[in-house]
Design a protein that fits this description.
Helix content: 25-40%
Number of helices: 10
CATH topology of the largest domain: Rossmann fold
CATH class of the largest domain: Alpha Beta
Largest sheet: 6 strands, mixed
Bound molecules: adenosine-5'-triphosphate, magnesium ion
Structural class: alpha/beta
Shape: globular
CATH superfamily of the largest domain: P-loop containing nucleotide triphosphate hydrolases
Number of strands: 13
Strand order of the largest sheet: 6-7-8-3-9-10
Strand content: 25-35%
Order of helices and strands: EEEHEEHEHHHEHEHEEHEEHEH
Number of domains: 2
Amino acid sequence: MIRVEDLIFQYPKNDSPTLKGLSFEIQSGEVFGFLGPSGAGKSTAQKVLYKILTGYQGKVEIEGKDLNLWDSSFYEKIGVGFELPNHYLKLSGRENLDLFASFYPKNSGRDVLKLFEMVGLEDDMNKPVEAYSKGMKMRLNFIRAIQHDPAILFFDEPTAGLDPVNGHKMKQHILDLKKSGKTIFITTHNMNTADELCDRVSFIVDGELKITDTPKALKTKYGKEAVNVELKNGESDEFSLKDLGENADFINFLKKGEINRIHTLEASLEEVFINVTGKTLKI
Ligand SMILES: Nc1ncnc2c1ncn2[C@@H]1O[C@H](COP(=O)(O)OP(=O)(O)OP(=O)(O)O)[C@@H](O)[C@H]1O
Ligand SMILES: [Mg+2]
């Protein structure tokens, strides 16, 4: 669906490229993510792909067609949830949505109330956007991106600025879009968002992709295949998962006292990130 080969991009006023030769593919129906710290080039890469930034080197193909050869019909195919919501503040949420819908020839089927209900903004749809909180603007941003029913969706930091409840709902909406067959490219520096949403994730640092794989494969590869047992008296120990059922030390330890908790030592995506890139995800 999306194929990127050796993508290099330099902002005209900068001395060196921001994207230093990215190669990746996004399959149809996949949720693909860029996970990386602030300034890594996540938004820049997306902006090249949705043609806000031009003058790149390398090859970008969307549905087998070179990005440079797509005409304005490209914008009917894609939906973009920008990193920073850029609404008309004096207009209401509904007026904003209608205005953007008017740019698309095929929007007759959309149900505006349903869209607002989807993100819990139905009571606020007629209020001016200047009266919206950041999270409300993000939610409006989301329905604006999907209202023309595009096949490919770009979400730049979709859970940023949302409280845990709305963050969870946003992730669910994205998974629902995946279920309906959309191809989705997200950026995030939140490992939970990447872990929960992405079929595959690329770690990006300083304009370079360090590794691409499924979150599960990354965690298994870089995690410890072991279990940690903690007793109520505070004693704890680690045991390899290999032949665990026949490990006498493990069985004896379990009998030693009341068990407080047992957990596997699978790495978190953040630990894997640090392991692979030597950098943290913190801003
Ligand atoms: N318009 C611009 N002109 C010049 N340099 C820019 C411009 N926009 C971004 N950059 C630089 O490009 C680099 C990557 O920025 P980008 O916004 O793509 O990072 P990001 O990974 O999206 O970060 P964040 O997590 O903070 O959103 C940064 O060093 C930034 O300073
Ligand atoms: Mg960004």
